[in-house]
Amino acid sequence: MDLMDAIKGRRSIRKYKSDPIPESTLQKVMEAVRWAPSWANTQCWEVIVVKDQNMKSELTTALPKTNPALSSMTEAPLVIVLCGKKGISGFKKGEAATAKGDWLMFDTGIAMQTLCITAYSLGLGTVVVGSFDHKKAEEILGVPQNVEVVAITPLGYPAAEGSAPKRKEISEFVFSDHYEKKG
Ligand SMILES: Cc1cc2nc3c(=O)[nH]c(=O)nc-3n(C[C@H](O)[C@H](O)[C@H](O)COP(=O)(O)O)c2cc1C
What we know:
Bound molecules: flavin mononucleotide
Strand content: 5-15%
Order of helices and strands: HHEHHEEEHHE
Distance between the termini: 37 Å
Strand order of the largest sheet: 1-2-5
Number of strands: 5
Helix content: 25-40%
Radius of gyration: 18 Å
């Protein structure tokens, strides 16, 4: 698949078929995550692949009832929970290397986009889910103190396509030489 087609064609999918994902396909998605860039190649991400239906149901209790991705969590054959190890990305000898502190969110963000684009190229749907009770999800999944849950995505074959929400024009976010006040 052409890269631009993948970038522009990927949509948030909130309706899934229950068809299982072949192990070899899941491995391709994880292989892509493996090659995501990260701060000093620290690779702080960790991934929990949730297949057990009871565990998926329990995990949905961490989402607000109003989250539009709620039902997709139990519809899709897999739920992928992207975690980050704290105090690694953006750190040198235990000290934060920049005023931004931990770059965990940045690195796991890249990893998630890599996952979503690769999944799309393999015919699979994803939707990044960030609006939930992270502490509750960490308890349910038994995530240790030095690790945090960042985002979740169901992973499965789409039952319905999503429509593309409108994007800003390039001219609305690209500046020349210095910051400009727009509109
Ligand atoms: C960090 C992040 C958190 C998100 N959280 C949710 C969420 O909790 N529930 C949901 O339904 N969609 C969520 N989304 C999906 C966005 O709504 C979606 O990406 C955006 O509207 C653009 O649509 P598209 O992905 O189809 O291009 C999230 C996306 C990102 C990047």
